[in-house]
Amino acid sequence: MNADAASGVVLDKVAFSYGEAEMLFDVAVPQGRITAIMGPSGSGKSTLLNLVAGFERPSSGRILIGGADVTGAPPARRPVSMVFQENNMFAHLSVADNVGLGRSPALRLDASDRAAVAEALRRTGLAGKDKRLPRELSGGERQRVALARVLVRDRPVLLLDEPFASLGPALRDEMLDLVADLQQERGMTVLFVTHQPEDARRVGQAMVFIEDGAVSASGAMDDFFSNNAPEAFQRYIGGQANIDRSR
Ligand SMILES: Nc1ncnc2c1ncn2[C@@H]1O[C@H](COP(=O)(O)OP(=O)(O)OP(=O)(O)O)[C@@H](O)[C@H]1O
User: Fold this and answer.
1) Do residue 194 and residue 225 come from a single domain?
2) Residue 189 CB less than 6 A away from ligand 1
3) Is residue 175 in a domain?
C-alpha cells in the first residue's frame, strides 16, 4: 500500500451482512483524489459508502480514515460528508439554513459561520437564492445546496452516492466539473458512486470496481480505460458499445 492510499480511506477486511450473503471489502482509496466506485446493481456500492460514513457497522475488520481507526466512531465523529441522490434538504428550511446546518446542527450561527455560508453559496452558483425553499429550486440547484453544505462542513472526505443520476447530461457534466473544482481547491478525498463510465472517467483518477459484495478490481482510472482493463470491468461495460477508450 503506498503512502497516499494509507492516508486516504482504508477498508481493512471489512465484513458486513444484511442477513443474506456476506460482503467483504478490502481496499485502500487514495488520499486527495477522486475515486469512482462502480459495479452492477446490488453489488454493494452504497453499502461501502455507508460503512465509511458510519451508518452501518462492520461485523469484523477496521475502517481507517487518514490513518485513524474510526471503526467504532459514530457518523458525526467521522471526518466525512455525504451527498445522496435525493433528499439532501429539509423542506421547511431556506437554502441558507440548509447550508448552515453543515456548520451547526442547531443553526446557532455566528458572523463567521454566516460568512462561510454566503461564500459557499457564491462558490456553488447559488448567490441570491439563499432565502428560497427547496421546492423553489431545480434538481440541479438542490444538489448545489448539498455541495455548499459540504463546503461549510469542511471535512476531508466526501462521499457521493450517485448525486447527479437524475440530472440531464449537460447539467450532470456541469455538476461533475464543479465537484472536480471543489475537490482540487480543498484537496478532499472523494468516493463517488456512479453507473456511468463516462462520468467516472471525466472526474476520477482512480477506480474501485465491486461485484457480489467484494472489490474485484481497483487501480488508476487510465488503466480501466486501456486495452489492459481488468477483465471484470471489461465484462461489465462490454454491453455499453459507446465507451471511447482513446484519450
Ligand atoms: N437496508 C437494507 N436491508 C437489507 N438489505 C439491503 C439493505 N440495503 C441494501 N441491501 C442489500 O444489500 C446488497 C447491496 O446493496 P447496495 O445498495 O449496497 O448495492 P448498490 O451496489 O449500491 O446497488 P445500486 O447500484 O442498485 O444502487 C443488495 O443485495 C441489497 O438488496
Assistant:
1) yes
2) no
3) no
DSSP 93: S
Task: Give CA–CA dist 54/65, Å, rounded.
Answer: 12
Domain presence at residue 136: yes
3-class DSSP state of 94: coil
* Structural domain of 21: 1-74+159-165+188-242
Same domain assignment for residues 118 and 54: no
How many structural domains is the chain composed of? 2
ipTM: 0.97
Q: Is residue 176 part of a domain?
A: no
Q: Of all protein residues, whose CA lies closest to atom 18 belonging to ligand 1?
A: 44
Q: How far is the CA of 107 from the centre of ligand 1 (A)?
A: 33
Spatial distance between the Cα atoms of 98 and 88, rounded to a whole number of angstroms: 9
Q: Do both 9 and 70 map to the same domain?
A: yes
Ligand 1 atom nearest residue 39's Cα: 21
22/60 Cα distance (integer angstroms) = 11
The answer to whether residue 181 is domain-embedded is no
pLDDT of the chain, 247 residues: tens digit per residue? 566 666 799 999 999 999 888 999 999 999 999 999 999 999 999 999 999 999 999 999 999 999 999 999 999 999 999 998 888 899 999 999 999 999 998 999 999 999 999 999 999 999 999 999 999 999 999 999 999 999 999 899 999 999 998 888 888 999 999 999 999 999 999 999 999 999 999 999 999 999 999 999 999 999 999 988 999 999 998 855 445 544 4
**pTM for the full predicted model:** 0.92
Q: Are residues 24 and 67 in the same domain?
A: yes
Q: Is 41 in the pocket of ligand 1 (CB under 6 A)?
A: yes
Residue whose grid cell is 440531464 = 168
Measure 48 CA to ligand 1 centroid, in angstroms: 10
Identify whether the C-beta of residue 78 lies closer than 8 Å to the C-beta of residue 56. Answer: no
